[in-house]
Amino acid sequence: MDTNDAFQLHLQKLPPQDEKTFETIYTLGNGHFGVRASNPLQGNNSHFNGQPGLFVNGFYDLTQLSYGENYSGYAQNSQTICQLPDLRFIIFELDGIRSDETPYNVKLVDKNLDMRTGVLMEIFDIKSPTNKLFRLTLQSFASHADKHLFVIKYSVSALNFTGALTVIKQHPYINQQIQSRTDDMRASRPETALDRTFIKSKLPIMLISTRKSQLALIVAQQALKDNPMQVGMIDDLPCHNKTFDLTQGMSQSFSFVYAISYPHPLLKTTLSQSSFAASAEKRLANKSFKQLLDESAAKIGEFWDNSDVELTGDTALAKDIRFNLFHLYQAAGNDGLTSIPAKGLTGSGYEGHYFWDAEMFMLPFFIYTEPAIARQLLLYRYHTLPQAQRRAREMGVKNGVMFPWRTINGEESSSYYPAGTAQVHINADIAYAIDTYVRVTGDEDFLYDYGYEIIVKTARFWLSYGHWGKDIAHKGKFVIDDVTGPDEYTAMVSNNYFTNRMAQNNLSIAVKYSNQLKHSHAEKLVTLNVTDEEIAQFNQAADEMYLPYDDQKKIKMQDDLSTSKPVWPIKETPRNQFPLLLHFHPMTIYHYQVNKQADTVMTDFLFPKDQDAAQLKRDFDYYEAITVHDSSLSRAIFGILAHRLHHADDAYGYFMQTVMMDLSNSQGNTSDGIHAANMGSSWLSLIYGFAGMGLEKDSFNLSPELPEAWSSLRFRIWFHGRQIEITITQTAVTVKLLSGNPIKFYLKHKAFKLTKEQLVNHFLK
Ligand code: BGC
Prior knowledge:
9-stranded antiparallel beta sheet, binds beta-D-glucopyranose, carbohydrate binding
């Protein structure tokens, strides 16, 4: 294997991990689906202990949530992404013994992911119960040219024998068995049961249906024309099969393409299953492995052209960064009907749910580098507005919408409301993301057609959910009670700083865009019933938003009562008692000042102009001391702020922990899936952190400063239809306009004009 290149992720060069962690790390995906890189002989054989499976974005089943005390408005169903049969699964037969009936010995020899082409190459040595040894080499990829396709090539070569080897490519099971852990609520998942039928066709075409959500998925299988294979029936199931005459030392290859297609429920299509099956079959165009690969690799090439971050001075780190970016690309839904699950499409952790993770931690990467994908991700929220409106009414909120804390289909799926539904900040997070998208892309059509409606309806939520304060402390102020901020170790409080500041922003941008559209597209305001009176109410609530502040400590207070509680004895707590959520009752934790993750300081990060350096330092020091980072969404934010405070070592340390989180399995649960928000945070740390990117009116500012260990950092962004390349070294920054019209931008807040003819080269030191 050629593994020297900067885009190769070679097993031998990674820190050692358990099998399931590597299955996650090497998962292949394309936003539509993900396939874990498991032992291809496992299937449902309990002899092996991997966690194989196919995850299709948005394809879930429902399981009824059971509560001892089932209060009104509690989420009634959990949506769980289905762990579908492993497409890599294969059956061998040697000397009349089938590998799915009597386990063969499977030894992983090597793996390498080429992130430039998306091809995963794997080598396994397999021994039959009769001691015949052969080598299986797999080459597989999830197509980025046609997102429905998964392609896999198997090569077998006999190592100690000459003789017949039969290959059977079928899925005798439909419910992919997994060994789920039940002691970790982040991993635990209700079992879902799937049904299967085969559609009459020349090919094995499975129709997989869920019992409760009543979704149906088509998986069509075809042998590629490079090495045709016949379709037959074995055990009453259609399959491809062939017997090869192997000569010791000679290898034989055969390859398959899978088309995975389903009518997404948000699509509300009237097409029948058979037409979906027909379209899946049509997708299996008669192409060779190489043709399919070339098409897909070309798409990935475009991704790298837009999104690569080239770091020099630390080759290993440069590759680790690419690993994070590649996984983000592999995870992002791009059909307007799906988003990015917290674990990407690499595992069943968090049941495949979408959280604020997508908008706040991952979306910025796409907004700046792949704006078309960012648009699709935001469209997903637009398509779930009806559910969010119903939920608001169900929760007694008279106006506006209330987005779910965790969901797949747009409905609330959180069973523990204090750390779930109560995180109403998600509404403002979505609005913030839309504002960023519009400011960076200038996509006025999106604003008009979709974004503005979400911003107005979430602003209405705040007016309904909050109220005007009456007691002395809050008189004349707009207050928001009974919420949980990002820090899930503090719940159901009044005036969570982050929530109130984000709500304030939501209300302000509703005013900004209402005033803007009033002039250009007044009819939009009429359609949405936005009146001058309502705009004035948004404005007043934003102006008078209550933001708790501790006058003695001179810090932003996490909520009305936060600083009066005792501090959790973090240093005295043994390491094995973390994460606290797995060892202490929530109320025990709520009793103390202890933060699971960045909360109040998220506002320092998101609104850099809110505070001066002295305020930032006080907030940072205070909250860093009480934060345990039990969430993977935490360290990067502290790292970016450390950078802004010129604490170079801390910034670098936090960054390294962020980038390496999944490769080093530092949270201990990468086996359940990647930490996708943290991967997005790797990009945030580089661009918002070390490059110091910030938004200005119709422009952007850069305040770069590299860690000493790096020689240079180069990346590209799209800004209002222009592509711009930025190269930062220890001493200078060079900004080039690759396409589009001239633009004024800022370097350390000094204005520069950038044209195609005239790049900007500026010395930093
Ligand atoms: C964090 C949340 C996050 C969720 C999914 C939780 O542990 O506290 O902020 O949204 O994980 O990643």
